[in-house]
Design a protein that fits this description.
Helix content is about 80%, strand content about 0%. The chain has helices spanning about 35-40, 45-75, 80-90, 90-115, 120-150, 150-155, 165-175, 180-195, 195-220, 225-250, 265-300, 300-330, 330-340, 340-370, 370-380, 380-415, 415-440, 445-470, 480-505.
């Protein structure tokens, strides 16, 4: 069976022939599909994954590189306390991304599955309109609450002494920009849901260029320090959000910014929340992990907090490339799953796993070799000596994390909210005891090596959940079978009726 054939006797190209075609779906095969739909529907798996995943991976890597550059500006032109503030601020970023993931990833996978099922554009309009306005509304609420409670939140995150004031400033600005950050991420996911991988990367590049420009202006020239970094981030999210919004309104027949298409239909809310909840848990895990790490690392001093933050930013480059390859494939998995194309799903997941692990290994080796030189670019000798061990542990964890990402991406793409939540919740339940007791029993080394320990166990958990939920099995193509059966029954009924009429005559 080839990758273009389906299991369960589903049609070759996915959707049922008697469903209304979605925008961009020609009724006569792949030749009439635009390039973005062709990648989801008929392109060879490796080509599809690279075309969808590489732009996403490059976009995330560019963001990670920017984070390192941003650390350079803050650390070079500011103080260690301001650099530590960017680490203390990670939980706030986690809150914002938790909300964004709830709507963005949940809605985008639902839209991709509906595309694969061949549902009409007006049905997908309800999904995209719900995603847009729910995300913006939640962003405004988060901004109001977070801005008001920024002072106590700063204290909860572990900032104190000289790092308290810069952290408080950074937290205020992150919450102020929450609507734009949440709106940007949600729209980016909707762009990718239709296979527009390059355009999703272009939006990230727009934001990165804007941040670099304003980092130079606000930090290097105007000497605004951590406030400059915060304002640059807000303006970057505004620029990226506007790019995605204008692109979708111009190019996508499946996107709707019309408030009249907004719907609170449970048929939309339930699958969006089911998948988005896993992303919510994952982001909450990031929040509480950062809180725990900040408070435990703070006992070793601000230098240690800064070193952890710096090592994590360096580790994000290979990690984001792997995540990009996997997340870039989510629309492909979701489309094939909606089209009941089990063979294509199986080949896509196998290829994605190989690509993700290979990418992680190839990129981890040079970072490990040149870790001291990379750390020295941003920090002084104190940060280098502390960050070196952290970076080694994170790099080893990255290889196992690459496999975990594949499992989570598949669960999200196929709408399996339960396994996706169990996977992300399981990682949290494994990490917290590991880092707490590791620090208690082994000190700084235990705190550091909790990362690879957790990821090894997470891979095992992902494999168990994958096998327990049927692996790559897709639902049977019941509508097609029923339709064919109905046609046969009608024909038989007509024959019987005709025979009876002849006998009467």
């Amino acid at each position: 069976m080839t990758s273009h054939q389906t299991e369960n006797n589903a049609p070759k190209n996915g959707a049922s022939n008697n469903t209304a075609p979605t925008a961009g779906h020609g009724p006569h095969g792949a030749s009439e599909d635009p390039q973005n739909i062709y990648l989801l529907k008929d392109a060879p798996i490796l080509k599809a994954l690279l075309s969808l995943g590489v732009p996403m991976a490059l976009g995330l890597a560019i963001t990670s590189i920017y984070n390192v550059v941003n650390s350079y500006f803050v650390g070079h032109y500011g103080s260690v306390e301001e650099l530590a503030a960017t680490g203390y601020g990670v939980p706030v970023f986690g809150v914002i991304m938790a909300i964004a993931g709830l709507f963005g990833l949940g809605a985008s996978t639902l839209a991709s599955r509906k595309l694969g099922e061949g549902q009409p554009a007006h049905e997908i309009h309800r999904v995209t309109s719900f995603a847009l306005y729910s995300a913006l509304g939640a962003g405004v609420i988060a901004a109001i609450i977070g801005f008001i409670l920024a002072d106590p939140i700063t204290g909860i995150m572990g900032a104190s002494g000289g790092s308290y004031e810069p952290t408080r400033i950074y937290v205020h600005l992150m919450f102020l920009g929450a609507p734009f950050a949440i709106g940007m991420f949600t729209l980016e996911q909707l762009v990718r849901s239709e296979g527009y991988a390059k355009q999703s990367m272009y939006g990230i590049i727009v934001g990165t260029v804007v941040t670099c420009i304003f980092d130079v202006l606000f930090i290097a020239i105007m000497d605004m320090g951590i406030a400059g970094a915060g304002w640059a981030m807000v303006l970057a999210n505004v620029a990226s959000m506007l790019y995605y919004l204008l692109f979708l309104m111009r190019k996508s027949e499946n996107f709707s910014a019309n408030i009249r298409d907004f719907s609170l239909d449970p048929a939309i809310i339930k699958p969006v929340v089911a998948v988005g909840a896993a992303e919510l848990i994952q982001s909450l895990n990031l929040i509480f992990s950062a809180l725990l790490l900040n408070n435990l690392a703070a006992s070793y001093g601000d230098d240690t907090v800064a070193a952890f933050g710096l090592a994590m930013r360096l580790n994000m480059v290979p990690e984001m490339l792997c995540m990009g390859l996997c997340m870039g494939g989510i629309p492909l998995y979701a489309y094939a799953y909606g089209a009941r194309n089990g063979a294509r799903v199986k080949e896509a997941l196998r290829t994605a796993t190989i690509l993700s692990v290979a990418t992680s290994v190839v990129l981890t080796i040079p970072v490990l070799i040149f870790r001291r030189e990379l750390l020295a670019v941003v920090g002084d000798e104190r940060l280098v000596s502390t960050g070196e061990e952290v970076l080694v542990a994170l790099m080893l964890a990255a290889v196992f994390n690459a496999v975990s990402i594949v499992f989570v991406s598949w669960f999200q793409a196929s709408g399996k909210g339960g396994p996706a939540m169990l996977m992300t919740l399981g990682i949290a339940l494994l990490f917290f005891p590991a880092v707490y007791f590791g620090n208690m029993w082994f000190g700084f080394k235990g705190l550091t090596w909790a990362f690879p320990f957790t990821q090894v166990l997470a891979c095992a958990l992902g494999l168990v959940l994958f096998l327990a939920t049927g692996g790559t099995k897709v639902p049977p193509a019941e509508p097609e079978v029923e339709a064919e059966g109905s046609e046969e029954s009608d024909a038989q009924a007509a024959q019987v009726s005709g025979a009876q009429s002849e006998r009467k005559a």
